[in-house]
Design a protein that fits this description.
It is found in: Membrane. This protein has 338 residues and is mostly beta strands. It is built from 1 helix and 26 strands. The longest helix is centred in the C-terminal third of the chain and has 4 residues.
Amino acid sequence: GYLGSSLMIKCEHPQYKTKPKYICKESDGCSERKNPGVQDEWMENGDVSLYDDTRAGVLMVFFRELKAADAGTYRCGVNVSHYTESFTELQLNVKHDAKYPKSVTESAHLGEEVNITCQIPEEHEVHFCKQDDNHILIISNVSVRDAGVYWCGAETRDTYLTFISLNTKIQLNIIMPPVVRHEGESAEIICPYDSIYKSKPKSLCKGKCSTRDRNTLNETVREEKETKTDRLTLNDDVTASVFTGTITGLTAEDAGKYWYEGDDVSIQCKHQDEDQKSFCKAHEASICVKDGVSLETIRDDRFSFSDEASTGVFTVNITDLREEDSGIYWCGAHVTTK
């Protein structure tokens, strides 16, 4: 696997399909055994995600972001009985290789095709998948459902082990072409969004949506409810992660630029010093913090702070999210987090 990238390990136990499975590191004497706890569901256990597939007899172990400390010898095992277990030993090496791009952003117009280049060693099989999916995808005619995060990398297989090293993260953005309609017709404004915002309320506005005097067209859509006014219908399809506004009986005054905006977000920041807590927006951490003092602390009535001193965590709440809020933020104390 590659430093900072993702890695999937599939450990096959075909003769013990329904028995509880685990993975552990031999350097700590296998004292901490990671197992899903629940079968046939993805579960997080520390810094890995696990899935015990009882139909195939496979334990899937997903390292979300490989660290140098993850390297070592592991046992991928199954508890056969109270006194007996069976395991396969594997060696995990974590490499640093600058020739493989870690993150790529691609953009494609709705209805067109997109080519994504994936560099992997020639002797390995290519593996290409979309985040939150467990199967290989092939993009043909780009639709709003294709937007999201993809991974590509190399797949190798041993007798009872499969390694999928996902070394490149690809963010695919869908560009919506201009909507051209005649007066009296209807128009659909389609807004795909990241799946993490499924449960967030959404609204549609026209013109300068990033200002206080923005023209909000209707009440906010919450959950899967559909809201209607005289000429406007808003619908949030959380399954497809697509927010749609339909305007009927178009007039010349309807022409213009429309924006989709969410509601609010909470960001948790760890800190080590009670006296130095900062949160700021900038491209580099040095712009925000110097010698532990924030130089560009955001001051806005939409931003509020709450602190849980005992846990070493403070929370930043941003309400009334606007397009201008997009960007890179830094938070923390002497050690900042991007």
